[in-house]
Structure formats: C-alpha cells, structure tokens
Amino acid sequence: MPRGKIINYSPGKNRGRLKDNLTGAMLDFKLINVDRSSRAFLSAGREVEYDLSPDGRVCRVRVVDPYVKKEQPESAGATDRGGREKGKPEIALPEAGPVFSVCGGEMEGMLSEEKAMEYLKRAGLGDILAGQAQSAGTQDGNQFLNPYNFVRYLDQPAEAAGGPHLFWRCQPPPHDRFTGLSGRITCRLVNITPLFISDSHGIEEDGQNDGHKKYRFFQIDGRKLIPGSSLRGMVRSVYEAATNSCFAVFDDRRLSYRNNRYSAWLVPARIEGSREEGFKLKLLPGRENMIIYPDPRRYLNENYPKSKTQYAGWLYSFWPLEPSKTLKQKNDEFVHSRRGKTPPALPEDTGHGSECWAILKKRRHSHPNITFYDVVEIEAPDNEQAIKEKYNELKMGKGDFILTKGYLCKNNQNIESKHSERFFFDNSGQNSGQEINLPLEKVKEFEKLIAEYADRHCERIKKLQDPQKPLESKKEGEGKHAAYSRFIVKGCSKGYKVQDGELVYALLAGSADSPDVVFLAPVLVPRVFHEKSMRELLPKYLHKCKKIEVLCPACRLFGWVGGNDKDRPNEGHPADSAVAFAGRLSFSSGKMIYDSGEEGEITLAILSSPKPTATSFYLLNRQSKKPSGDLKYAEEAVLRGRKFYLHHGAGPSRHPDGYEYERPEGKKDNQNRTVRNAVKPGAVFEFTVDFESLAPAELGALLWSLQLEEGMYHRLGYARPLGFGSVKVIVEKVEVFDLKKKYLSLTAYEQYALALDRKQINEKIDRFKSEMKDLYGREFGELENIKDLQKILSTPPLPNIHYPRLERISDPKGENFRWFINKGKQKQPLPLAGEDRGLCY
Fold first, then answer.
1. What gap in Å lies between CA 461 and CA 69, rounded to an integer?
2. C-alpha span between 723 and 531 (Å, rounded)
3. Which of 225, 364, 378, 427 has its CA 20 to 30 A from that of 796?
C-alpha cells in the first residue's frame, strides 16, 4: 500500500492534500464522516497509507502513526501526579490508526456509512447492530450440535429416462456462438460472523511453540480481497446440491477401520519370493492346529470356536506406559509376576524379521483367560549348542518348555499397555512348514493398507524430532505417548513395498489342508479395509461426469474436466471425445467496499481433516435411509450426501470459558494456527459474476444459489466448523446484454446492458423451481436436498456447536476421538439435518 505525508488539512471542509513518499506526487482528497475527535489525527506531517481507485483518485486513507499529542498548560519545574513534567506533551496511544473513507461513495471504491448500514440490515445484521442478536435456539447444557451435517441427494427422476432435461444430464451449449442469456450479476457480500481467507504470503513461524504458524487475511497491495475462486467454490457447492448434480470432487478411497473381530483367527506367516517369481506364504501357527472357516469375513464372531492358545509366542520387551490392572496380581502361574524383571537379552544384530532360536514356556493369562507361549531364552541361529544346553537344564524342572527356530516380529511399543513383541514359529506337526500361494492382488492390497496407515500419521511423524528411533516412546506435553509402529515409520519415510521375508498375519478361508488368503495384516488387532469404497456406495448417476454429451447441470455451468481419475484415467472417454468444457461463469474477486474493522490475533482451536471412517456420521441404511450406529462401507449402506457446515447464528458458539473458536489456555503448537486481520462482522464486499449463454431457468438457479432464501447464509473461508465465515450474498443488480447492440456499435456499456427489475429476477428463480418440480414431481420446498440446505444454512436450534467431546468445556489437547470410542457414544449416530436436535455429551 503506498505511503505519503499529509501536507495540509482543513477540518472545516474535510479537505486535504498528501505527498507520496516515493514519487513525490501531490494528491488531493476529501473525507466523509469524520467526527471531531478524529480530526487530531490528520495534522500536517502525519504519515498515512492510502488506496487509489481505478481512475487514480484517493479512495481511502489510514493513519500509520496514531500517536496524538495533547499540550498541557506550562508550569515551569512542576510535575503532575504521574511524575511527568508539566508543560510537556502527553502521548495518547489508541488501539490502531483510524481509517478514513474518502468522498465519492461507491465510485471512489468505498461505501458511505449510511449506505453500508442499508446492506447490513438487508443481510440480517440490523437487529445484531441494535443489540438484539438473533437467537440460536434454547441453551441446553447436556446437548450440542455437530458442526456439519449432510445434504441428501435425490433419487434419479423417472423422466430422465425419456431424454435430456435442462436439470438432468445433457450436452452443454457451444462456445462458438451465443445461445441464451448473457450478462453480469453484481453482488454485495456481508459477513455475519468473523471472516478469514488465508493468504499464502506473510506466514510467520512461531519458533517458541513447536512449529506454530500465524496467517494473515488474503490481500493484494495491502487491500483485503476475497479471491474469485473462493466465491466460485462457495456458490458451486450450493448449486450442485440444489440441482442434484454429480459429485465432481470426490475421494474414492477404500477406507479402513480397526477390527479385533478376526484377531483370534489371524495366523502368523512369512512372505517369501518376489514380484517377478511370485510370492508364497509360509504359515507359522506355533504349536497349534489352525482353525479355518469357509467364509470367515462374513460369519466369524465370538461364538465361533478358536484356538485356545495363541499362535505366536510372546517376547517380553518393555514395561507398559500405562500398566493394566492385571499387573497387580501376584499369582506366579501368570506372566504378570515377571513383567518387572529384565527382558530376555536379544542376540547382537538382531532386529525385525531375524531368524532365531528360542525356548518357550506355556503360560496362562488371567484375562481374558487365554494361554500363550512365553519366550524364556533367545539366541542367534549359530548359537544352537548353547541354547540346547539351556533347554536341557530348563526341561528338567517344572513347566512345559519347547525349543524351536522362528522369526522375531518387532512392531515397537505402539500402544500404551503393550509389553511384549511377538515370536513367529511353526512347531505344530500338522502340515508343518506349509506354504501356500499368495496372489499378487493380496500383496498389493496389503501395500495399500500400509500406505493408509502411513497417511494417517506421516505429517506428525515428520514433525517429531527423532522419527528414526521409534522404539523410544515420545513425550509430548504432560503425558507419555506410544511410539509409531515400525511399518508406519517405514511407509512414511520410503514408501512401502513387500519384500522377501516380511512377517504378517493372515486371515485364511477354506480348510486347514487347502487354505486361501482373505487378507494380510501387519498386527494382531489390525485395520482392515471396508468391503466397499466410498464411490461404490454412491449411485452411479451421481458419479463424476464422464462424457460431454451427458453433463450434469453444475458441470455445464461451472465447467468440467474429464479423464483426471488417477485410477481410471481413460474410463468412458473415446479417443476422439472432448475431455473438457470451459465454464460459462466468471467470478471477480470480492473487493472490500466497507471496512468493519479487524479482530485481534486469534489462536484458533484445533481443526483436522474429515473423518469419513466415522461411519455413524457419514452413512445411512440403504433400505430405511435412516442413520444407524453400526454401519460399515458395505452393501447395506449408502452415503448420506454432501457435507455442509452449519450456520452458527448471530456469532460463533461459546462455552463457559470463552469462544469455541479459541483454543483453551491459548495453547499454540503445530496442531493449530493463529490468524491475523480476520474481518469483524459487518464488512461489505462487492463482486461480479459474468454469465454466458444461460437458459432462463439456469439463470434462476444461479440467482437462487447466490442469494439463497430469507434467513439462509453461505459458509465461506477458513474455520467454518468454529463459526467463522457465515456470509449473506445480496444480488444488487442483474444485467442482460443486448448482444446485437454490443457487437454492431461502439456504444457505452450502459447502452447494451439492460438491467432486470426485481419482478423479472423473481420470475427467473420461479422458472428454476418450476423445472425442478416438473422433473422430480414435488414442490421445490419439499425436495429433501432443499429442506436440508434450508436447515443447515439457517439459524440452528441449539447454541452449542462444536465437534463431539465428552465435556462441556473444550479440552486443550483437542482429543475429540474419545467421544467416538466411549462405549456409551459409539452407537449414537448423527441425526438427519431436518431432525437434528443435538447429540449428548
């Protein structure tokens, strides 16, 4: 932003002149709405920053040096009560230098105070400014609203089978000629809650707080702007939902979940071979006969018979970070009595996968009443004679000892209660040394699973100071934390590919004589992939558009790029078919035309990535279309719809200790960020939308998606789950171009841009609603997608809006996952948007 010094200023006329510091140019200005107390800031010599309008005139002035000198009566040698010498100027420091608007109104770039108030009232801020904030429902200390919900999609319309429809799937108009309405929509945007659009420049590192960063509001040449891409994305999300368009941006991963259902049937194994020669799976079931069922994935449960003794041996390796209750037991028959002793010494140069000799003793565990083989001694393969001597000594005493060769499986102390690593061996006698074919597809699926594990933790692992020493538990803050698993660290650092000698667990199907691999897992209580991917639970008619001949309403309007699916790059695209279509809309940046002021620095609460593995929040029962607490990504489920963040009412939600958007105790680390220059509620931005070749109903759909309905608000920018970014878009003007006049003459813009009146605008919106009614057979307001949008983007029924947690007060650590693992909450699904009356703490 350019700077200059005030040369002179006339308070009576509110006129002045400033000199640019760099060029020396003299610039005249006239201020508006300057109160008497602010005139002291505008004395000659004052340093200011200023903005220029497109035509080169000063449109805003901000005082850089806000100190104000007030002369005191002279009294030589005397001092005042504060010890200051009388007669010297007193320095008064306001919070910040004031900003002055320059005469000329909107043409000069800024709105007058009076004009801005009109827009604030139209946006619903009138009552708030008058001290009568809109209610966000009844306070309930026992319930809260989740900050997001879903807009349901509509079933495929019956009429769609009869041919193309404007609001179904059809070919877009060409770009080589105009075929409909073209023109410009001028909009004003008012923020109802604090607004923050992050800038990629001006990021400050906080060296004292573990990688914490500070971000500023997006700006160009010192002036706050809302990027046109942000406005475009905001409007497109509503347009897609309102018109039942395709899911253009969609994560097609096959998700995993932690599952202990199969633990008792997982058989230790060793992968042998290579991609070139093929893989084999060497089964290592210990001393037990394997129990295998024909279709374990569908039928296994706690009532099915399982091996009484665990297949793998236990190698006591470390004292638990959080000892279990069983450690207090003193029965020598249980292994707990010896956990405090020194673990068996490992041979030198022994690590994960090493072949070793071991002496094992059969022991009984008190809870859950299982037996296992405990490693008593362990030696390198070339120390066979020494370990045999120890074995002969031990078997003379009491106990069931065995001597065997096997493989050391070390996955680190990856849970707080863990005390033992595992020892894989085969001493069963039944099909001893059995090897089975391992299909390459199972190997690839296992590699994807490891990648999925790694993706969850890579960012955190990279930030740890010593990620290459995973056996050392990390200490963060006040508590001890388990280390990351060996395979996760490996997957993050180098990527993961199966190698000869990898130790795994395998779920097998068929019979003990001829088993087949169902899946491989890295640990005994593993994450396993859901049966279906997210894409498979979405109806095909909502999959991303593939052919230009059958584009959905949103892709035809906002644009489409095909063939960018990394897993299916050429699916549905003939060689001579178009693979992209330029949108028929162009959004300008949102320029601030009324400044409501800035919030101070705000250290935000923790925000994290979406968690679609929370299936009780993301899925519905396929048959009933109702929420359920026990769904998985399988045939019996469907996706809920499109995710939207709730409007928080007059302002962000609060708890007894402060705002929800603030992290308790102001804690700063790499899990959260601090934002600067967030815009206070009540600012006004202006932007335009240029449109081309729209049908009247398409223009109506766009206008509805821009201005929404009375009491509905868009969500824009950063920290929306915390209540930031509720905005109201006001359609100020709609102009349709007379293209004949435009291209056959040199007339001014005003001569060929014909403004629509309010009646004509409403007719276009009604035309859109009528088309939707004809297509789906119900009134516009009765469609599920519209009802959900109305509910989510309107004033909520409860004031407590935040991510699930167990307590009313926010936890500085932000450990929201504890709500989901609490047994009383696990089955509590997220209600449908129209039925959402809150969840329980």
1. 54
2. 36
3. 225
